[in-house]
Amino acid sequence: MPRSVNSVAKRARRKRVLKQAKGYFGRRKNVWTVAKNAVEKALTYAYRDRKANKRNFRSLWIVRINAGARLHGMSYSQFMGKIKANNIELNRKVLADLAMNHPEAFGAIVNKIK
Fold it and tell me: 34-51 pLDDT, tens per residue?
């Protein structure tokens, strides 16, 4: 019985990986073994950094809220404590946007919780 190899699937798999490696420099874009490793590492970084991106944005929002709160004589922790105590259900993303782009609206929130 002749040996059976699934060349169609093999070629499709390689084609898919080489397509993902498009735009890479040097052998990373067209040599199968190098491209496979490069794509695998890139996907690992992408997965990791999707999580890190969320952390980075949260810290950015906290910095912006803190800056806005300190203009009104409050620290970030005091501000967030009073926000929770007064049942104001605005998340950090919205509060940071208000502090940055609509300081008068942010000031109104600070005056309401004081």
Answer: 999 999 999 999 999 999
